[in-house]
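Hi, here's the filled form for the chain we discussed.

Project: internal
Contact: R.S.
Residues: 85
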Amino acid sequence: MIVIWIIIALCGICSLILLSGRGSILIAGYNTMSKEEQEQYDEKKLCRITGAGMLVITVQFWKLLVKRYQIGSGHSMLFWLSLLQ
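And the returned structure, exactly as it came back:
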């Protein structure tokens, strides 16, 4: 389960980098274009759109993890409280 949290954290960090308008190196295919082809695109806008998509994926992945393991539900709270006794 720790690996899943690490993946979610890495996805979150990548989405924040892209949302800031930087990190065009993370966009597949963009950095392999020639400079002339790259000039046809607005790099900041491309990064922000990709970052927004990455953020949606990250949030959905986090929601899936929370639902799967019932993190924050009453049942898991009772489980953790029972370990304290």
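Let me know if anything looks off before we file it.
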